[in-house]
Design goal:
The N terminus is likely disordered. This protein has 32 helices and 31 strands. The protein has an 8-stranded mixed beta sheet with strand order 23-22-21-20-26-25-24-27, with helices on one face. The protein has a 7-stranded mixed beta sheet with strand order 1-2-16-3-12-6-7, with helices on both faces. The chain is elongated. It is an alpha+beta fold.
Length: 1078
């Protein structure tokens, strides 16, 4: 803020006049005096409107510090004293804010300070544009490309110790925010003749001296160089050292810069190798050698240098040696080799050195561009900075000066077009009253040089391409024919006699009246330099080099790509690139810096008025001021003007509904701008004085601030109001909700209290009522009871005489009957299932019915058993009969019995009829077989067992051998008297026979069987049905049997566990047989 207060102006503390437009009176003298006065007070910059005139101070001035940068940053162009930073700032802001591509055109003669100015512009822009790591790297690379290019492309000349020997145009690219993205450098025609020869008092390009002074011993050895300048023919001796220049330090700066720009170490090394090779080429010398056939031939004097070059560049020595002694010309089919004489050999050597160096330089530019090019594809804004070699007049001027000066003519042309001519034409177009201002238009000179048919360049090309002998003299002759009549062309030889006696003009020269003065050109070398011829042998030798950089520099040396067409000449190439440049500049908004050199001595504080006057004249500065003064500093279409300033007047703000011009008129009247300050054109308003514009701008700025405040005010008011309203609404909502809630709470409390009170009252009322009702009820009941008792007494008293004695018995019987009735009816529903084994029976209801209940159960069981039996078939009946028989016989008598109940009685266990073994047996038995079973027959003598088939038929019991089926004994049933068995759980039984019967010879039979119960039962039943006598069945644990004559006691003892049911028998003695049973 403090800075804003020190508001300086162009007009404050002014030395002389800061803007020549304000100079009074305006004349050449006053103009020069003003410059001088300012120069003497270290004010080197002066404006002509928006053009900056810069006078070279030749000494460092303290006006480029960072503080100065800050001072000029974002300030109005005319606000501070004139400075190159003001112009840079204007251009940068216009680029950033108005989206206009800019170009900074820096002109002036050699040594006037163009290169310095261009660097100042770049450093200012770098200082004010965006910041950040990435942006800073881009800036650094852009800035550091300068020292690299200067080392290789600048040299000391008599005019300038650091003279650019190439033209440079650099496009710096910015993004929409104004941050630098990258850049593109274009270079124009390096003065390569300097590589092999320098005019007196001048030096070769800086890099040669820098390497020799600055390189370490080690690096020098690697490059096969020596530190001594005098060892090298290509370095002029008389000015090897330049005052105030330290080549060694600069070498380090350059290497550092190369690193920053992005050169790899191996690339830097290759570049230095090429530079060393160029330097050493100059030391190759040739001596003549005559051959027998009389042709001139040359030979390399000392091959050592050649050997070293070849080692450095990886070229085969013999190849290079041959390329220096022969020249091969290829025409369509033929190939002709001619030897080179000494002069031609030197020519070849120098051509090679020049080509190597200039191609290296172009490669460097391409390589730098690769590093600094913008990485993104977004739309870019461009600021071009043009620093091209200045107008040059030397003692000897050659092709290079011709080209350089042509370029300056073109620049002057574009200056004229964009400022003087265009401006005046616009006034006429816009119908503004205007008195024409005379100025010199150099278009005629440009035409002399570049005209496609009759221009000097076209003529030179024609000569170069023409068959036959072509020399510089034939070229001059041609010039003399064609251009003799041109106003700006002078020559002794021309038919026009104007210069026949002009001794200052030698015969071998022509002179051109440039816009900046007359320059005499030595015609010698024009053809060669335009041809820029390099023998194909040499380019092919270079292509063969084992050095990737050199190989890349000579692509045409590749035999596979031989091109017989001539390459374009140096002149036409230059003309084309200048034309492109001009086209490019025309699309951009130009900003001019016109540099003036105050003296020829490169000295500070010396102001050579004659020299400055000359420059002021040819630069057309005075005309520039006149046009500015007569004209209008500023113009703008009405629409834009109205749009920009309409807020300054009530009628036009915010909308103007009429034509824009009328609006502007109203606006200017309202603002009370004096009428002489502006004019109305057809489509534009013209403002005479920049000050008016600044006044408008200031008002606008002020008004914008007011408007911004207004907008802010309204916005803030609106914001506060909305906020307030919102708060208010919210407050109401909250309050209503809270009130509702509070009311609700209160209501609920009252409600519950009311309910409590109510319930108490109701309770009390109800209890009261209840008490009353109860009382009434009890009263009623009491009355009834009393009445009942009373009636009872009455009735009993009345009926006593009618009661009988047995009334009680009747009532008893009736009651009993009712109970029985009820019992039976209930019983009917509770009866259990019909299954005979169902044990269920309903519980007894009354104790006195106990016996009835049991009887009923028994009857029901019998009944259901009968029901069950009624369903039997005959066969089932038989089986049950048998089972019943068995039960009667054995139940509770024999322990074996219960186990047999579940077993069905099969009878015929042995199926005799089916087994063929027993066929005989079957045949022998005619009757129906009741039992067929295998039994153990116990030997009477020793008690041992033997298997027998036991058959029971209707009439007999048969015993047969089990194996053979042979019948062993046959006992008629009538002979069986008794069957005995134990009460135990065994299958032993004895069959007693009738004494004296046939079968009883051996005595009673003893058997043991698994089906004892069945057998005994069947035997019993069969006997009963046959003999009508009951078979005696004795169950006892001790009984007698008859064996022949003996009566033997069979005694059962407990103890046999082994054989299950099978008893073990032992004959103890004649009287006793022991049977062990389980
Ligand atoms: N603004 C300046 N301040 C100080 N010295 C300057 C300035 N401009 C130029 N010079 C001096 O003049 C010399 C020549 O300037 P330069 O820009 O190389 O000229 P040109 O490029 O026009 O040939 C510089 O080497 C420097 O010493
Ligand atoms: Mg320069």
């Amino acid at each position: 803020m403090a800075k804003m207060e020190v508001k300086t102006s162009l007009l404050d503390n002014m030395i002389g006049v800061g803007d020549m437009v304000l100079l009074e009176p305006l004349s050449e003298d006053s103009f020069i005096n003003n410059l001088k006065k300012r120069f003497d007070h270290s004010e080197i910059y002066t404006y002509i409107g928006s053009v900056v005139v810069s006078v070279n101070p030749y000494r460092p001035l303290p006006i480029y510090s960072p503080e100065k940068v800050e001072e000029y940053r974002n300030r109005n162009f005319y606000e501070l004293s004139p400075h190159i930073f003001a112009l840079s700032d204007e251009a940068y802001r216009s680029l950033r804010d108005q989206d206009k591509d800019q170009c900074i055109l820096i002109t002036g003669e050699s040594g006037a300070g163009k290169t310095e100015a261009s660097k100042l512009v770049m450093s200012y822009v770098a200082a004010v544009c965006g910041k950040g790591a990435e942006v800073n790297q881009v800036k650094e690379q852009l800035l550091q490309s300068n020292p690299v290019l200067e080392a290789f492309g600048n040299a000391k000349t008599v005019r300038n110790d650091n003279s650019s020997r190439f033209g440079k145009y650099m496009d710096i690219e910015f993004d929409f925010k104004g941050d630098p993205l990258g850049g593109v450098i274009s270079n124009y025609l390096l003065e390569k003749s300097r590589v092999v020869k320098q005019p007196r008092g001048e030096r070769n390009f800086h890099i040669f001296y820098q390497i020799l002074s600055g390189a370490s011993e080690d690096l020098l050895n690697k490059l096969k160089l020596e530190r001594d300048f005098s060892r090298y023919n290509y370095l002029s001796l008389d000015s090897a050292r330049v005052n105030g220049v330290d080549d060694a330090v600069n070498f380090r700066t350059v290497r550092n810069a190369m690193q920053i720009v992005g050169f790899m170490d191996h690339e830097t090394q290759s570049i230095l190798e090429v530079v060393a090779a160029v330097l050493k080429l100059g030391n190759i010398e040739f001596k003549p050698e005559s051959r027998v056939n009389g042709l001139d031939e040359s030979k390399i004097k000392d091959k050592n240098e050649l050997k070293e070059i070849c080692e450095l560049t990886g070229i085969d020595q013999s190849v290079l040696e041959r390329a220096f002694s022969f020249r091969t010309v290829e025409a369509k089919q033929e190939k002709v080799s001619t030897t080179l004489n000494v002069a031609q050999a030197y020519y070849a050597r120098d051509a090679l050195a020049k080509n190597l160096y200039s191609r290296l330089f172009s490669w460097l530019v391409t390589r730098i561009n690769e590093s600094i090019k913008a990485q993104t594809k977004v739309r870019k804004k461009v600021m071009g900075v043009l620093d091209i070699y200045g107008f040059e007049i030397f003692e000897d001027n050659s092709f290079e000066q011709f080209i350089i000066n042509y370029c300056n003519e073109k620049l002057q042309q574009i200056f004229i077009e964009l400022t003087l001519k265009e401006e005046q034409e616009e006034y006429i177009r816009e119908d503004i009253e205007w008195t024409h201002i005379e100025y010199f238009n150099n278009a005629i000179i440009c035409d002399l040089i570049e005209n496609n048919q009759t221009g000097i360049l076209a003529m030179l090309d024609e000569e170069c391409l023409r068959p036959g002998t072509v020399t510089d003299d034939t070229f001059l002759e041609k010039l003399n024919q064609v251009c003799a009549t041109h106003q700006h062309f002078e020559s002794r030889m021309s038919k026009c006699s104007r210069f026949l006696n002009d001794t200052s003009l030698p015969h071998s020269c022509f002179r051109i009246q440039h816009y900046a003065g007359k320059v005499m050109y030595q015609v010698e070398g024009f053809v060669d330099k335009n041809n820029d011829l390099l023998y194909r042998d040499l380019s092919q030798a270079m292509w063969k080099a084992n050095h990737s950089l050199i190989k890349a520099l000579f692509p045409e040396g590749n035999p596979a790509k031989i091109n017989l067409k001539r390459p374009p000449t140096a002149g036409s190439q230059f003309k084309a690139s200048v034309a492109t440049l001009m086209k490019n500049l025309q699309t951009k908004n130009p900003n001019y810096i016109r540099c003036i050199k105050p003296n020829d001595k490169k000295a500070a504080h010396i102001f050579n008025e004659a020299l400055v006057c000359h420059q002021v004249r040819y630069l057309g500065l005075l005309e520039n001021v006149r046009v500015r003064r007569a004209g209008y500093a500023f113009r703008q279409p009405y629409e834009l003007c109205l749009e920009r300033y309409k807020m300054l007047c009530k009628q036009t703000w915010p909308h103007w509904r009429g034509p824009a011009r009328a609006g502007v008129e109203v606006l200017f009247n309202e603002l009370e701008i004096p009428e002489e300050e502006y004019s109305f054109g057809r489509s534009k308003i013209f403002i005479r004085n920049p000050r008016t514009l600044f006044k408008l701008e200031d008002l606008r700025k002020q008004r914008l601030e007011d408007l911004a405040t207004l907008i802010q005010k309204i916005y803030r008011g609106w914001k506060c109001l909305t906020h307030f309203l919102l708060m208010k609404r919210s407050q109401i909502v909250i309050a209503s909700w809270y009130r509702r809630y509070a009311q609700q709470k209160k209501y609920q409390r009252i409600k519950s209290s009311a309910i409590v009170v109510q319930s108490y009252i109701r309770g009390w009322k109800a209890r009261k009522l209840l008490r009353e009702l109860k009382h009434q009820k009890r009263c009623k009941e009491a009355a009834t009871t009393i009445a009942a008792y009373w009636h009872g007494t009455q009735v009993r008293r009345e009926y006593r005489k009618f009661f009988r004695a047995n009334a009680g018995r009747k009532i008893y019987e009736f009651t009993l009957q009712k109970i029985m009735q009820k019992y039976f009816l209930e019983m009917k529903n509770k009866l259990p299932s019909l299954s005979p084994i169902d044990k269920n029976w309903p519980a007894r209801p009354y104790l006195f019915l106990d016996s009835t209940h049991k009887e009923l159960k028994r009857i029901f069981h019998l009944w259901r058993c009968k029901k069950y039996r009624d369903h039997f078939t005959d066969q089932q009946k038989l089986i049950y009969e048998e089972k019943l028989e068995a039960s009667e016989l054995f139940k509770d008598k024999k322990a074996l019995y219960p186990a047999s109940v579940g077993q069905p009685f099969h009878g015929a266990y042995l199926e005799i009829s089916k087994n063929p073994k027993y066929k005989k047996l079957k045949d022998a038995v005619e009757e129906k077989i009741i039992i067929a079973e295998v039994v153990n027959k116990i030997n009477r003598a020793n008690g041992k067992c033997a298997s027998r088939i036991f058959l029971l038929t209707k009439n007999n019991v048969l015993l047969a051998d089990q194996k053979s089926g042979h019948i062993k004994s046959e006992v008629p049933l009538g002979d069986v008297t008794k069957v005995s068995m134990s009460s135990q759980n065994d299958g032993f039984f004895a069959v007693h026979l009738k004494e004296g019967s046939g079968a009883a010879g051996k005595g009673d039979f003893l058997f043991s069987s698994d089906h004892l119960i069945e057998m005994a039962t069947k035997l019993y039943r069969t006997t009963l049905s046959q003999t009508k006598q009951k078979l005696n069945i004795e169950i006892s644990d001790e009984f007698l049997v008859q064996f022949k004559q003996d009566k033997v006691c069979v005694k059962f003892i407990q103890g046999n566990q082994k054989n299950g049911n099978i008893p073990t028998c032992k004959r103890k003695n004649n009287r006793l047989l022991e049977v062990a049973v389980p």
